[in-house]
Amino acid sequence: STLPAVAEELLREVKKAFQETSQVPDELLLGLKFIFGPSAVPALDLVDQCSVTRVRAPSGRILYQVLGNSGKLYTCYSSCHYCTCPAFEFSVLQKSESLLCKHILAVYLSQALGACQDLAVSDEQLTNILLAEEEDEG
Fold first, then answer.
1. Which of 107, 51, 45 is closest to 76 using CA atoms?
2. What positions does the domain SWIM-type occupy (predicted)?
3. Residue 63 forms beta bridges with which residues?
């Protein structure tokens, strides 16, 4: 993974605490806010709203879709921590102000908290999702 070690460790601690107590302690919530800045609270809101869907194909390919507050669906790739939203492009890629956007952080948090919706699709359907995403960007 390409996240800094401190971010990886924090997400592991969140997962462990949640598995043990079904809660995320305040000190870990503060850690999320410290490490991920303004993305932390909106990402937690997205997880609370069950906005993260893991899309799986028979080939083993997995991507995530996050329903943003605006109602737009963003495609996220956790393997390379990339999101198709404008905030990711601007704040993460161009300005390097943030480690990640709220959508990809919501993906990581939903994985840690076991809060992903699951959607099984055919390989062809997955290809169509990726192609549609490419057209939106083009």
1. 107
2. 74-112
3. 55
3-state secondary structure the chain: CCCCHHHHHHHHHHHHHHHHHCCCCHHHHHHHHHHHHHHHHHHHHHHHCCCEEEEECCCCCEEEEEECCCCCEEEEEHHHCEECCHHHHHHHHHCCCCCCCHHHHHHHHHHHHCCCEEEECCHHHHHHHHHHHHHHHC
Supply the pTM of this predicted model.
0.90
- Going by pLDDT thresholds of 50, 70 and 90, the confidence category of residue 134 is low
How high is the mean pLDDT of the chain? 91
Q: How far is CA 84 from the centre of its chain?
A: 11
**Sign, CA torsion 35/36/40/46:** negative
Phi, psi (deg, nearest 5) at residue 77 = -120, 105
